[in-house]
Structures are given as structure tokens and as C-alpha cells.
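Why run this: before we spend reagent on co-expression, it is cheaper to look at a predicted model of the complex and decide which construct boundaries make sense. The entries below are exactly what would go into the expression plan.
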Amino acid sequence: MRAGWPIVVLLLALAGAARAGEISVQSPWTRATAATARTGAIYFTLINRGAVPDRLMAATSPVAETVELHTHIEEGDVLKMRPVEAVEVPADGRVTFQPSGLHVMLIGLRKALKEGQSVPVVLIFEKAGRIATEARVLPVRAQAPQ
Ligand SMILES: [Cu+2]
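The model came back. C-alpha cells follow.
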């Protein structure tokens, strides 16, 4: 009887990993920045193939001192960025982070982002946990992943 316990624990661990696998991060990208730029933004599409919603809670990246989740809201005819606490990824659904919308905000860039490089970023989900990915650095005026 006792000998059976490690197997049960192992199966529970595997079940957890499978749930994490229901969230995927598609086409992460960012834009090249000027040498003097202090901020940048990372975009991607989050896909949830699971039957329950999940939430993106936070992000980290070694290229910036601070990393926040932001959205844009319209104030009059001006688009302004606002931090958001979390971003829901609906069950069997997707959320696209894109210019003028949701983005991962890089504040206090440690160095310029150069076209052709990639930027490591870890996305932290309520249920799926941490997902590490790399955002491709596209040209300064890029509007979508290529
Ligand atoms: Cu922002």
C-alpha cells in the first residue's frame, strides 16, 4: 500500500503539467527602439485550448527594470496607456496583444532593442503558471508580427 503513494503523487504532477499546456503564446514580437528609448512593448496572441478560463497575472523580462501589463483607453481623441491588474483568457478562446491595445510594457530598458534580436519574456498565469518565450524584435514601425 505504502509503495503506491509515489505513483499517485507523480500522476497528480503530470495532470498539472497538462493543464499548463492548454495555454500557448503565439508570435511574440516587439519593436526596435532608439538608443535613448526608455520604454518598449511586447505583443503576442494568447490561446487557451482548455475548458476553463485563465488569467495572465504578470510578466517579467531581463531587458527592463519594470514590466507591467497595460491596455490603451480612449480619452477624448487621445489613446492613453493604463496598467491592468490581469488579462482574462477565455475558455477555448484567444486574446491578442497589439499596438493601441493590450501590451506588456517594458519600463526602464536596460539597452536598446535591435531588429533581428529576440527578447526573453516570462508570462505568469493564474492556472498555467509560468510560460517562458522570446519576442522577436521587428522594425521600428512594425504594426503586426511578420
Ligand atoms: Cu504601456
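Residues 41, 70, 81, 103, 105 surround copper (II) ion (CB under 6 Å). The first strand starts at residue 23 and ends at 31. Bring this page to Monday's planning discussion.
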